[in-house]
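User: Hey, my collaborator sent me this sequence without any context and asked if I could get a structure. I don't really work with proteins. Can you help?
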Amino acid sequence: MRTNTFAACAAAVLALSECYAKQLSVTDLRVLSAGTLVTMGNPYDISPDVVVAFALKESSGFNKAPYQDGKSKAWGLFGYHEARWCDHGGTKAEWGRASEARQFQVFINGLNKYLRNADVHHAKNRLTWIATAHNSGTGSDVPTEYVKQLTDILQQLGKE
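Assistant: No problem. I've predicted the 3D structure and written it out in structure-token form, which is a compact way to encode the shape of the chain:
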């Protein structure tokens, strides 16, 4: 009985450590961001620090951070729900398992998708528009608490 309990606890600890495999440093996030933007192309001139700010806002840089958002689950560096992950170019099989590099690819693909939208070009503030699009699915010129927190992170990144 004790062996089974120990084995169950050990399995739970291992599963938890795999969920929170590691927290990436700002330097690591910047390298991944810049490298992915170069590899994928950057037609909308996205700043690597904007991508880093989203990762820090959504997961504090944890590469496999899972969390419950209302009734649905979100996962990863950028807090993706499965449907939006797939909408931005990821697959159901990858969701919850993708490498950091793949998470950056899918996120930047999503940013490019938002920026292809004609409405963003009429926005007063491009960051507000893409942040509200990522956070709620609909781009807007109306700053939200999410946008404020993202802006604060960007200001901190600018000081580093």
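In plain terms: The chain has one domain: 21-159. You can pass these tokens on to your collaborator as they are.
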